[in-house]
Structure formats: C-alpha cells, structure tokens
Design a protein that fits this description.
This protein has 365 residues and is an alpha/beta fold. Helix content is 33%, strand content 23%. Strand 12 (328-333), helix 9 and strand 13 form a beta-alpha-beta unit. Keywords: Detoxification, FAD, Flavoprotein, Heme, Iron, Metal-binding, NAD, NADP.
Length: 365
C-alpha cells in the first residue's frame, strides 16, 4: 500500500508497520472481530468508538478507506490462493465496505461535533511554541498558543494530534494535553518523551524552538467516563509517561470532591516528571500519592499521603489494596505494565465499566 499509495503514509507510524509491527495485527484483529460479530456489533461498541476517535484525531477521511480496502482485498486474495473464489472475495468486499461505511458515518458525526464546539476548528491549526521546559532527562514540555487566542476547552485526559515535516516525510503523533485543569485555557501544554529510534519525538526534542509553529488538531480522546459520582473513590495506576493525561484528570476529580489515589511507577529518578505539580496536589486532603521508583536515590518514605518505594508495583502490593464497590480505576502506561494491573482488576471482579485504560506505545492485541 505504501509503495502504490505513498500519500497514505502520513496517517501511519511507520515504526509500527512490517510483518512484526503492531498496526498489521490491529487491522487483522479488527477484521476478525468484525467477522465474528457481523450480525450484532454490540459487543464491539467500545472498540469501534476507540477506532473512530483514533481516526478523527489523525484526520482520516473516506478516500483513505477505498485505498485500504483495495490493498486489503488484493492481499487477502494472494494469501488465500485457490480458495479466493469470486463468491469469497465478493463476500469480503461487502463486509469490508459495510464496516467502512459504518466508520465513515460515525467519524463524520464526530468531526461535526468537535467543529461545532465553542472555538472548534477543522483540520490543522498552527500553534506557536511559547515556552519549553525540561521535565526530566527524556521529557520536554511544550507550551502552545494560538495567534487568535481561541481555544477549545478540552475534556480532562484528552490529546491533540501534532503534525511535523521531517525532510520529505510528514509524521503525525498524538500527545496528551498535560496542562493543569482549568475552566478557561490560554494555552495547551504537551509533554513529549524522547523515544529510542523515535523519529517524531527525537525531531521535536532536537529541532523545535520557542517561536516555531506546530500544526495541531482539536483535542480528542474518550478516556474520561461520562459520569462519575463525587462520592466514588478514584484510583490511578500510571507507568512512566502515561502520567501526562492524569494531571488534568486528578485536578478535575479533586475539584469535584472525589478522593483520589495515584500509584505512579518509574524505572528511575530521571523519568519522574511533574514533581512540583504533585507537591501542590498533596496539599489537598483528598489526594494520596504512592510512588514506585526501581532505581532511586530519593529517600524511601512511608508517609500516609506520599510514599516512595524503591521497587516496582507488584502483584503482592496490588493484592493488599482494598477495593471499593463504586471505585473507578484509570490504568495508563506501557502494555506490560497495564497487563499486570488490568489482570489484577479482572481477577478482583471489577466491572469493566469502572476500568478506564489508555496505552502508551503501539496498541497491543
């Protein structure tokens, strides 16, 4: 597809392609689940909503579906060989375009929704970098402002998609809005971790300066649930850079009156970010912070509100937690970290509707 239609490369992270890449597995998984549930897509509602949100964040439009469909069917025919009868191929073509038309309709509705919000915009809007902060050895925060001073008020936990021109290539990446929660935004802050071999992240770290412009989308993302009662406890399990969307979420729920606990894991002191923000939040009686820093020179503490432990969060630690029947859980971070925590919550028979996840890194299926 990339050789015959190079224009679609802008919509993909090429590091996630190839035989062992995450993107082909996600596409295969999506089609398999769709085929299994073709008579009733209700079980796929959450999955489909996630795809729609991902696509609108990347500014995917109907023309791309024709390209993907044509290449997909060509590949399927080669894989199946003699079994790819005209009837077989026609059935898969009908199935693909049924799914494509469903997504196109839902995405059109989502585009219309965000563009109709106060100060909403269509496509890409240039944002000026007005300040850069070195949060840690590998994380920089970029403060972004619009020349017209008009901002969409993001939902806590949302992200913007950023477009960069790197040589002849356009790279698009989603970065969580790490700004502190407010009712009136005068800038957006995104916090970018430098990834080993990360084409976009390394370019952003090494080449962008104050005064440069970054094209960004309207804020997207559906991490925050529609409604959580102010009496419900909120617990965050966060690994590494997964902390970026939690700042606004924590502040939002504290403002609402919820009791909030953050379990925050890092490999070393150099990866810890937002320490001043958390120090401020700890002044709120409803906030507790448990840190797990594997390689740390910070003194270990067992304070009732702020604990620092020199080890990973483990299943033994998780099993000692007291779970409330109305508690909501946010799990954010790398896939291996999330598997440990979500596995514990599943074994603890926590209702899926009270578990809210966002993976950092290529989606895993």
């Amino acid at each position: 597809m990339f050789s015959t239609h190079p224009e679609v490369k802008d919509y993909f992270n090429l590091a996630h392609q190839g035989p062992n890449g995450a993107q082909p597995r996600i596409l295969a998984y999506s089609l398999l689940q769709y085929a299994k549930n073709i008579d009733d897509l209700t079980p796929l509602t959450a999955f489909v909503k996630g795809i729609v949100e991902k696509h609108v964040g990347l500014q995917v439009f109907p023309a791309q579906y024709d390209i993907v469909g044509s290449c997909l069917l060509t590949t399927l025919k080669k894989m199946v060989g003699e079994g790819a009868t005209p009837e077989f191929m026609e059935a898969w073509k009908d199935a693909y375009y049924q799914l494509a038309n469903l997504l196109i309709k839902l995405e059109a509705d989502r585009y219309a929704e965000v563009e109709g919000t106060a100060n909403g915009w269509k496509g890409w809007k240039p944002a000026k970098i007005v300040k850069i902060e070195q949060e840690s050895d590998s994380v920089k925060s970029f403060h972004l402002q619009f020349d017209d001073g008009k901002y969409v008020t993001p939902q806590p936990g949302q992200y913007v998609t950023v477009k960069t021109q790197i040589g002849d290539d356009i790279e698009t990446r989603e970065y969580s809005i790490s700004s502190e929660f407010t009712d009136e935004y005068k800038e957006y802050r995104i916090s970018v971790k430098r990834l080993e071999n990360g084409k976009a992240s390394n370019f952003i770290h090494d080449n962008l300066s104050v005064g440069d412009y970054l094209p960004i989308t309207v804020p997207y993302g559906i991490l925050k649930p529609a409604e959580v009662k102010e009496t419900a406890p909120i617990t965050f399990f966060v690994g590494g850079i997964g902390v970026t969307p939690t700042v606004s979420l924590i502040e939002y729920y504290l403002k609402q009156g919820n009791k909030v606990t953050l379990h925050y894991s890092n490999r070393n002191d150099h990866e810890r970010v937002f320490a001043p923000i958390f120090e401020k939040l700890l002044k709120n009686d409803n906030f507790k912070l448990y840190e797990y820093v594997t390689d740390s020179k910070l003194p270990a503490t067992t304070d009732a509100k702020h604990t620092i432990a020199h080890h990973r969060i483990t299943e033994d630690i998780l099993n000692q937690l007291t779970l409330s029947p109305d508690e909501h859980y946010f799990v954010l971070g790398p896939v291996t970290y999330m598997e440990v925590v979500t596995g514990f919550l599943t074994l603890s028979k926590v209702d899926n509707e009270r578990v809210h996840c966002e993976q950092f890194g290529p989606t895993h299926v």
